[in-house]
Amino acid sequence: xxxxxxxxxxxxxxxxxxxxxxxxESILVVLLALVFAVNAWATPWFLDIYNLADATYNFxxxxxxxxxxxxxxxxxxxxxxxxxxxxxxxxxxxxAGALGQPTPVLVLTGLGIGLLCxxxxxxxxxxxxxxxxxxxxGTMSLYRGIAQVSLGDQALTAFPQPFLDLQQTYFLxxxxxxxxxxxxxxxxxxxxxxLHLTATxxxxxxxxxxxxxxxxxxxxxDRIRFLLFTVSGLMAGLxxxxxxxRIGVVxxxxxxxxxxxxxxxxxxxxxxxSGGIGSIPGVVLAVLxxxxxxxxxxxxxxxxxxxxxxxxxxxxxSIALPILxxxxxxxxxxx
Amino acid sequence: MSWLAAxxxxxxALVIALxxxxxxxxxxxxxxxxxxxxxLDDTALLFMLALGQMVVILTRxxxxxxxxxxxxxGMLVALVGQHGPDLPALAYIVLAILIGxxxxxxxxxxxxxxxxxxxVVTLGTLSIFRGMIVVIGGGDQVxxxxxxxxxxxxPHKALLGLSSVFWIALAVAILMQLFLSRTRTGRGIYAVGGxxxxxxxxxxxxxxxxxxxxxxxxxxxxxxxxxxVARYGVAYSEIASGFExxxxxxxxxxxxxxxxxxxxxxxxxxxxxxxxxxxNALPTMQVSPFWQMAISGAAILAAVIINARAEAHPDKLxxxxxxxxxxxxxx
Amino acid sequence: MAPVxxxxxxxxxxxxxxxxxxVSLTLERGSVTALIGENGAGKSTIVKILTGxxxxxxxxxxxxxxxxxxATPKDAWAAGIAAIHQETVMFDELSVQENIFMGHxxxxxxxxxxxxxxRTKELLARIDADFAPETPLKxxxxxxxxxxEIARALSHEAAVIIMDEPTASLSRHExxxxxxxxxxxxxxxxxxxxxxxxxxxxxxxSDRWVCLRDGRKVGEGLTAEVTEPELVxxxxxxxxxxxxxxxxxxIGEVVLEVEGLSNATEFADISFELRRGEILGLYGLxxxxxxxxxxxVFGLSQPTRGRIVMEGRPLAPRAPGDAIDAGISYVxxxxxxxxxxxxxxxxxxxxxxxxxxxxxxxxxxxxxxLDATRALGDRLAVKAASxxxxxxxxxxxxxxxxxxAKWLATxxxxxxxxxxxxGIDIGSKAAVHAFIGELVADGLAxxxxxxxxxxxxxxxxxxxxMHEGRIVARFARDAxxxxxxxxxxxxxxxxxxxx
Lengths: 335, 331, 499
What we know:
The complex is a heterotrimer of chains A (335), B (331) and C (499).
Chain A: H1 17-21, H2 24-42, H3 49-74, H4 82-98, H5 103-128, H6 132-151, H7 161-168, H8 179-197, H9 199-209, H10 211-216, H11 221-247, H12 258-268, H13 280-299, H14 304-334
Helix pairs in contact in A: 2-13, 3-8, 3-11, 3-12, 3-13, 4-5, 4-6, 4-11, 5-6, 5-11, 7-11, 8-9, 12-13
Chain B: H1 2-6, H2 8-26, H3 33-58, H4 66-83, H5 89-113, H6 118-137, E1 142-143, H7 149-153, E2 158-159, E3 162-163, H8 164-182, H9 184-194, H10 196-201, H11 206-232, E4 234-235, H12 243-253, H13 265-284, H14 291-310, H15 320-330
Antiparallel strand pairs in B: 1-4, 2-3
Helix pairs in contact in B: 2-13, 3-8, 3-11, 3-12, 3-13, 4-5, 4-6, 4-11, 5-11, 8-9, 12-13, 12-14, 13-14
Chain C: E1 5-14, E2 17-27, E3 31-36, H1 43-50, E4 58-63, E5 66-68, H2 73-78, E6 81-84, H3 96-101, H4 113-126, H5 142-155, E7 160-164, H6 172-187, E8 191-195, H7 199-205, E9 208-213, E10 216-222, H8 228-236, H9 240-243, E11 254-262, E12 270-275, E13 279-284, H10 290-297, E14 305-310, E15 313-315, H11 320-326, E16 328-331, H12 335-339, H13 346-350, E17 359-360, E18 363-364, H14 366-379, H15 396-408, E19 414-418, H16 426-441, E20 445-450, H17 453-459, E21 462-467, E22 470-476, H18 482-489, E23 495-497
Parallel strand pairs in C: 3-8, 3-9, 6-7, 7-8, 13-20, 13-21, 16-19, 19-20, 22-23
Antiparallel strand pairs in C: 1-2, 1-4, 4-5, 9-10, 11-12, 11-14, 14-15, 17-18, 21-22
């Protein structure tokens, strides 16, 4: 259009410090610093490197699932069956252990069961067009139920030593680093790259923000959703393997209630339940905030369930506060 | 398939009847009168709670905090029973409803007033309520011997072979049916959930309905809290843990659509009864009670699949012959 | 006689477009006023102001001598204004009587069920409806749902009834029944605002007419004193050939061939050829099945019969991705719902359908994306602060340019434009029109779906007219007239003029 007016459009918006500081990730960084400062002040043992390393044991398995859950919630889905998949995978690992299988078989069994459960979720969600919250409440009962039926009130405790060593010795000796934490960080990098630097990641944002426009743009929405549920199952399977190796015993109520902890991590990480907004660095930071806050409180002998009160307040507060601030600002502007 | 969808209560009732008959053939003890009444007694709390959840789901919401509310209110009432004077049972009931209602109102204000997604709010309050039990109760449990006499005796009072808990559940169901079918507000709940835009055109304010339904769910959870604690004679932090999902499962099996605006009191009661029958039948059949969860999971999925088929989105009717055919089919 | 409702000097603007500009109109008792105008002329904005969905920026609404301000839909009801919407806005899961009385049920908190049933029966009898008050709404046909809406309007004792294209999805017989109902309402002394594209309906049912164009009132009068060609001229406004200077483009070989494309309920026997450098206009009323047929070509739905040949190769797209790979693009009608991803930036929107082109190994190259964005954005003259600006902050016209840029980025050979200028301001419209001319000059083939006659007549080389899911007329450029095209679109005649 030679005769139409041209506009000068910048490649990027001008850099403003306020934008950077008001990012959700920045707030989480401050929160994390606060958690460390308060804990270090409250307990002298908190900053001990071995204590910190052990702290990561308690959240890394959930955090691995949270990475996949973040992608699901970003695309307006949710998988409430993850904890049940952990249990089923752990059961498989335990059963293989009882049969005297070697470590690689145990690991593959766990991963395979997770993958299978995830595939099953994916088929149900994409095939029947019912929201995944209902489907995965169903499969959650089904998977957990299968675990309960198979195991009854027994426990599986026979594992080869190399398998237990996966999680009961440090993966790196100096600094002491558990395998699960290493895996979490490595997977966080992979998930971060996929979400933020690849075409697939861009498509996830588009699906979450506007699934119809995404479909009209040639994105195979159902294929991607199917894939995400499969990945979620696989991550839950991996968490099941790591958890089994760590505690060395499988009961059917293993990982009970984890789905809610995982969802909390993701939402606190800034992923919007309405889709289209979120980042992997945010989720990683939220995992660390929640993990170390919990650990610090545990060192202070605060019972786990009371910690949950604080975490619940943190969850609601973190969502409510921006809304309240926005409202207050709008009111001030309009008067 | 469309007949199935239109008469889902009938179908569900038939399925339950068949199930009971099959169980009876295998374990005759199960179909003896007292045993069947026992099922109703045992499922009474689930009946009430599922109805509370249904009202929430009708508005396109979800309340994950019901079981936690139940446990917290149960603990608070038990503490009153432990430390207070011996009050009449009615006082405990009213107190429990009010406490639960208050917690539900909190959910409602956060959801309707601030516009935070229901799943986020109730996930948060689930943790908060559970934790508060320990904070308030100091981590101890309150045992039967410590609660007052009337406190404990009430749920065990029987009439016509059924406990007072069942009769209360029945009253709740009747009130709920009247509320949803006969009051302006009740019909409004279906309207805001079924078509929020149209509801706004009719002057209905969604946010007010949200506050209301979470308060109702909370009140029912509170009432159930007292009955639960008094019936089982113990209050501690893990009461009804995970029960929120059983409650939702009852609704889904009973045909309440998570998309809002669809669901009936009889359907939900049957959904709860379905789970109740399974829970009670398994021990009689000497099947491991662990089957319960797997079966209800499979039932949810079956219900979902049948619903999805029935609700499949039809194409637009543009061609004249297609319109005529559709008009003919409607008869 | 004093008018029951008068709008004086109403204006209403949205970011990027002035929907209404100083419009006045009056409605009188016992009289049907037809509101006519093209899509985007401002008709639906008037409806929304009268029903309390929008509040006007300027001007007054006066009902029965009192100035009113409708903050909510309920205020409009209370003032005695009721609307029957194009797409029924009702509760499928509730019964007929509940749909009629939702929001104003008789009785106190407790509903008086006998009163509801009796009053519903009475209302339904008044309009000769033959279904029971307890019937669930979802069991009714569209025509019957319209009757429920009319009963709802009557239940308010509304003095003013607005009918927004009530015949859009009705059969001929149902339309006849609706019109006798309109006559009845007029005889009862109600004022009716009747909105329609169809001239036969306007002449059949209305006493007066008001014509809008581009948000302004361009004429009004008595229906008995006007002819159809006069109305068409008013609606369309400008002499058609002057606004869209048609570039001389050499029309090349056939690119896309569609033969007998049909699905079960939406369209049948859609056949056409599209040549390189050609603009094929697809005209018809809203709901004629144009979008549905073209979406099927684009792979959004599956046909039951028929075949598509793209550049000599048969094409059976199972999803839009297949059509895109074959070189077909589709710019959808509903920009906000189907076109843009509002929270994403301009760059991410423009590259969304062609991300594979910007992949370097596993990674997306943002510099490659930015190059493509700059090139297309400048070519379309997108006005923005930066290429990262979220699309939701842009005006409608600029959003539409972003959508078109997204599709050009896929380097298509065929581009289907579905109402490309709907709801955007005049300036952006002109830019889009000029740009369509540029596209064919570059050798693309264009299918232009439009309900705006001057747009189609100004741009297209040939025009196909659809009515009730079928192509009912084909016109070549030298053998068409506005009257003939409109007549074909309303189903009045079927024509085939050497196309």
